[in-house]
Write a structure and sequence with these properties.
heterotrimer, A mainly alpha, B alpha+beta, C alpha+beta, B: alpha+beta, 3 domains, five-stranded antiparallel sheet, flat, C: alpha+beta, 7% strand
Chain lengths: 512, 319, 295
């Protein structure tokens, strides 16, 4: 290398400024877009570090995986109910009359390279996606993060949950296998049960009497285009509001209503969250590799006259199926009409009530507590025993409905009679939430009197006066903690004081 | 307060001195952590490469998944560890500015909308009315054909099946069921001849044919001739949600719906004795012709399957 | 349905009639009504087997076709069978094997006379009889207490009281079509045994047993005799169709093809939900717990 070229390079570097090529590129961008100031602020954006703030990220990254694997699957899936004869590599189904939808799903599973893995990852990611939304919502609910100014984001999140459940059901139906076909049949009957418009609605959605010809193509376009677009848009809105309103945070050292404490966007948060995206992808791929899901080759194609026992929907539809099972057979007949209450109430009214209460919860709580303040610091669940108890009761109720969707499996597993299991679930669905509410309430109250449980403790200093009297003096609390609401009262810890040493130097805290 | 405690107080990112503890990594021994992360990245990369190789040779699905999963997982763990242990430990603080603007700004905003809009609309109420009406009508007009063209109207299709007077009961292969075919306690799914391969046949006309005894069997008053030679036939569509009621317990003489476990007693006209189903399964009147074939006397006397709003209208007092 | 089934309709009709005839005899006698239904079908009542083996005295000891052959137990075993019956069965079913009349109550001991050898051997070979728990509403499969020869001997003696059908079957699965079996299984069997053959709870504390560990000849015996609450499949399933189902059960049900990993016990979405939430979401939440702060 000659001296001349080295000088030349140095000259180039100097011309480029202190930040080199990247700096130059950013300058060029700023000339056109004016991003420098906002970009700097964004790089400095602080994300709270508490682990429970990452639950929403599980949902977000599962959704990313759903999009990626879903795009792969659309390349091979044929959304058609046209009849073909199956002649694929899976011999036990050879020669069966099947739909193209089932045929192409078999093709994805057995012929397309990596197809089965993608299918299984897609399905697992869906199960995790909905589950993560529920857990994330529970965190938001129990910590009061939905309060003003975040009511709108709660509404968006709830809508996302409903859309995720709906899109999950549509996707589950697409392979047109025996199990999912039964699910579609039930969905048709639920639509039909709606008074006044039911049979019209069912005919329009299905393009005629069951099974109709339009189901798979329509479900497909809803599943791969329309609902994902809506979900994507709402996720964008959800994140925009999150950035605009900034994160909530748990109360604690240095944390006030007027700041956010945590790690900056770049580089710490970026590294952690990108790593987490990979981890979500990795765990989904491992599940897809080792845990078989929805083996449609064992179920066979759908045929309206066939049925398998012990078919349950995917888990997020379980509460509906359970409600349908345990609701009594009361049908209304009169005034020249039938209202199938045995279907309409558990499958339409009940979820309607649950989701509407959830939608209205921020308003309801504001009405009852008359709390119209803006909140950025979170509640600990024990601080709001009534809300927590209500949430626990609802979750227990839903969990019981979910368990009720597998009464047959439970009866078989524990060698019980089907009838007594069903009656047991009917009772448990009502009784357990009634027990759960006061229990949760009481536990919250107990935790309140044990304030600071799980929090950093400040030690008391026990000293002996010259008269031999022992005096306990609390050490000062952290300066910033004083004064803001919901602050935890420190719990005294034992301090051993060496008898003859001066108090200042002989303090030894004992770990609890 | 110790030095460490001092440094736990969050500060703003800007204006920290380089030796501030908050800019130091969390790891006690950064070199070791760095080495561990390097190994993690290395193995992650190897697995990802192995995924590529196994995709190339079309390995089994579990190998594809295991290599991809392990690769992504290790890369992710390494990256997270990098961020958690080797990057500035913080905590840092960011000021939160109130979103709400000053009262003057709010007022100006509201005034802009209300005053301008009001002055324009107030003077042109008629125009606004017509425009609103036009858009409303367009909305309805646009919605109606869309809904209407999605599918046919139900009309009478929900009230009838393809069973007719004289329809042969055939099994799914199209074979006519003969009186000699079933032993007592046997069950077979039948269709009116000609529909056994159609979607509608399978969805609507499907019927279970059960042999209960050797003699003519009467399930209910008024159905004395419906069960010749112990053959009784019920719609296979559950009256709860339309699942095929294909589960027959021959000693208990119960048809059970596999979906939600409604139980129908076949000896008394399939009256539901347990579960959520509200109505008995409709019974198909049968006769046996001179060749011994099982045939239908007529269509079902009521709509089959789950309930719907208009169901009661046609069947009237029959049920 | 499989298109190839249509091509075989004549065959199905023929073999169906063949099976129907002896089983009607069986059905009639089992219900204490000895009227054998006369049908107008041409070959009714005459064994239409491609395989018929008679002994010296002209009695049919083996019949069937290339899908299933049925063999009557040798009458030489009668004496042994009687002794075994008296020792193991007579305490409930009576020394005449006529039991306590089944009046629909649980615990009534059925009349075994005329049920046919396959019924007797099925219950003994599957370990359900002699009953381990007489009060149980439904006996469970277990280790057989008697050897298969002893079972055949008991069947021989009971059959000698009043000969019945079906005889003890031997399926020839190499001639069976597993794909047709899958379709027939989905239509006829899955509604009780589930599509993966795991069985499940049924009404009044009964249950459909798992099919995961049943030898082929017992699958045929169960289909043809309808043990307990299971419907009998007689004229509506030909020997060929029964063999098809049996092949599907003994291959795909008992050794399922799980290219996607572990089969999760065949519980379907219930198990999938557990794994998805507990393993998938649970692991991810642990990872969150690692990544984030805990205070």
């Amino acid at each position: 290398m000659s001296d001349a070229s080295a000088t030349n390079k140095r000259a180039q570097r100097e011309a480029a400024g202190p930040y080199g090529k990247i700096g130059q590129t950013l300058n060029e961008l700023d000339d056109r877009l004016g991003i420098a100031k906002g970009g700097r602020t964004f790089m400095d954006k602080i994300f709270p570090d508490h682990w429970s703030f990452m639950l929403g990220e599980i949902a977000l990254y599962s959704f990313v995986i759903l999009l990626v694997t879903g795009v792969f699957l659309t390349l091979y899936f044929v959304p058609s109910v046209a009849t073909v004869i199956y002649h694929g590599p899976y011999k036990p189904m050879d020669g069966q009359r099947v739909t193209e939808a089932w045929d192409s799903t078999m093709n994805i599973s057995f012929t397309v390279r990596g197809g089965l893995l993608m299918r299984q990852m897609h399905h697992w990611a869906c199960d995790i996606f909905v589950g993560a939304i529920v857990v994330h919502m529970a965190r938001v609910f129990f910590t009061g993060a939905f309060r003003k100014p975040r009511e709108l984001n709660w509404t968006i999140g709830l809508t996302l949950l409903i859309l995720a459940i709906g899109n999950g059901f549509l996707g589950y139906s697409l392979p047109d296998d025996l199990v999912s076909g039964t699910g579609i049949r039930i969905a048709y009957s639920i639509m039909e049960s709606i008074p006044f418009v039911g049979s019209y609605l069912a005919f329009w959605v299905f393009g005629g009497n069951f099974p109709g010809t339009a189901t798979i193509p329509r479900f497909f376009i809803l599943h791969v285009l329309i609902l994902p677009l809506v979900i994507l848009g709402l996720v964008g809105g959800h994140l925009f509001l999150l950035v605009r309103q900034k994160h909530t945070q748990f109360p604690g050292k240095g944390r006030t209503e007027k700041n956010v404490v945590g790690s900056p966007m770049f580089p710490v948060f970026i590294a952690k969250t990108t790593g987490f995206l990979f981890i979500v992808g990795g765990i989904t791929a491992l599940l897809g590799a080792f845990a078989q899901i929805n083996p449609i080759w064992q179920f066979g194609p759908y045929d309206a006259a066939r049925i398998s026992y012990a078919v349950q929907p995917d888990w997020y539809m379980g509460f509906l199926d359970g409600a349908l099972r345990i609701w009594p057979s009361w049908s209304f007949m009169g005034f020249g009409h039938t209202i199938p209450l045995e279907v309409f109430i558990p499958a339409v009214i009940l979820p309607g009530i649950i989701f509407n209460v959830a939608y209205l919860w921020p308003l309801l709580e504001r009405k009852f507590t008359k709390d119209n303040e803006i909140h950025h610091l979170l509640d600990r669940p024990s601080d709001r025993p009534k809300r927590t108890a209500f949430g626990v009761a609802v979750l227990v109720f839903l969990a019981m409905l979910h368990i009720a969707s597998s009464t047959d499996v439970i009866a078989n597993f524990f060698h019980l009679s089907l009838e007594s299991t069903l009656w047991g679930m009917r009772i448990l669905v009502i009784v357990t939430p009634i027990i759960a509410y006061p229990l949760a309430y009481k536990i919250c109250k107990e935790m309140q009197s044990y304030r600071g449980g799980g929090k950093r403790k400040t030690p008391n200093i026990v000293s002996r006066t010259a008269e031999g009297e022992y005096v306990a003096t609390p050490t000062p609390a952290y300066g910033e903690d004083v004064g803001h609401e919901l602050d935890a009262t420190p719990v005294p810890t034992y301090i051993e004081v060496e008898p003859d040493e001066p108090v200042e130097s002989g303090v030894r805290t004992v770990d609890r | 307060m110790s030095d460490l405690e001092e440094h736990r107080t969050p500060v703003s990112l800007n204006g920290l001195s380089e030796d501030d503890l908050r800019l130091q990594p969390l790891a006690k021994n950064p070199q070791t952590v760095e080495r561990v992360i390097a190994v993690t990245f290395l193995f992650g990369t190897l697995f990802v490469a192995a995924f590529g190789a196994s995709f190339w040779v079309n390995a089994k699905p579990w190998i594809l998944g295991a290599t991809m999963g392990a690769g992504l997982f290790l890369l992710g763990v390494g990256l997270v560890a990098w961020g958690k242990y080797l990057m500035p430990r913080g905590p840092f603080v960011e000021e939160r500015h109130t979103l709400a603007n000053s009262d003057a700004d709010r007022e100006a905003f509201a005034a802009a909308i209300v005053e301008r809009g009001g002055s324009v609309v107030k003077r042109r109420k008629m125009l606004a009315g017509i425009l609103g009406g036009g858009m409303g009508i367009f909305g309805i007009v646009a919605l109606f054909p869309l809904l209407r063209s999605l599918g046919p109207l139900p009309k009478g299709t929900l009230f009838h099946t393809d069973w007719r007077k004289g329809s042969y009961a055939v099994d799914q292969t199209g074979r006519r069921v003969n009186v000699g075919d079933l032993a007592i306690g046997s069950i077979v799914t039948v269709f009116p001849e000609g529909t056994e391969n159609s979607d509608r046949g399978q969805a609507v006309d499907q019927t279970v044919l059960i042999r209960i005894s050797n003699q003519n069997f009467t399930t209910q008053k008024g159905r004395e001739t419906w069960g010749p030679m112990g053959y009784v036939a019920y719609s296979k569509l559950c009256t709860h949600l339309g699942c095929p009621v294909g589960l027959y317990e021959q000693q208990l003489q119960l048809l059970v719906c596999p979906c939600h476990q409604s139980m129908f007693n076949v000896t008394n006209g399939a009256i539901p004795q347990f579960g959520p189903a509200p109505r008995p399964l409709p019974q198909l009147p049968l006769y046996i012709d001179s060749n011994g074939n099982i045939r239908a006397q007529a269509d079902y006397d009521q709509p089959v399957g789950p309930g719907f709003f208009e169901r009661h209208r046609v069947t009237g007092s029959k049920l | 349905m499989n298109s190839s089934l249509f091509r075989r309709v004549p065959l199905i009709v023929a073999s169906g009639a063949f099976v129907a005839a002896p089983l009607l005899l069986f059905a009639g006698s089992a219900n204490a009504s000895n009227n054998i239904l006369q049908t107008t079908r041409k070959n009714a009542g005459t064994p239409n087997s491609t395989i018929v083996v008679k002994n010296k005295s002209g009695t049919v000891i083996k019949y069937g076709n290339k899908y299933i052959t049925y063999k009557a137990p040798s009458s030489k075993l009668d004496t042994l069978g009687q002794a075994l019956f008296m020792e193991n069965c007579a305490s409930c079913h009576g020394s005449e094997a006529d039991g306590v009349p089944a009046n629909g109550t649980n615990g009534a001991y059925p009349d075994l006379v005329g049920l046919g050898p396959a019924t007797i051997t099925f219950w003994i070979d599957s370990g359900r009889m002699p009953a381990k728990n007489v009060a149980a509403i439904q006996a469970r499969r277990g280790q057989p207490a008697l050897t298969s020869t002893q079972a055949v001997a008991i069947a021989a003696w009971v059959n000698s009281l009043l000969p019945g059908y079906p005889d003890i079957p031997t399926p020839h699965l190499k001639n069976a079509n597993v794909a047709d079996g899958a379709a027939l299984f989905a239509l006829n069997c899955a509604s009780c045994h589930t599509i993966e053959g795991d069985g499940d709870a049924l009404a009044a504390s009964t249950f459909s047993p798992s099919l995961r560990n049943i030898p082929a000849f017992q699958v045929v015996e169960a289909i043809r005799t309808g043990p307990g609450n299971m419907p009998r499949f007689t004229g509506n399933l030909s020997d060929q169709q029964v063999a098809d189902i049996t092949k599907y059960v003994t291959t795909e049900i008992q050794h399922p093809n799980n290219p996607g990993g572990f089969g999760l016990g065949g519980l379907g979405p219930v198990a999938e939900g557990f794994v998805g939430l507990l393993v998938g979401l649970g692991l991810l939440m642990l990872v969150c717990y690692w990544i984030g702060d805990r205070s």
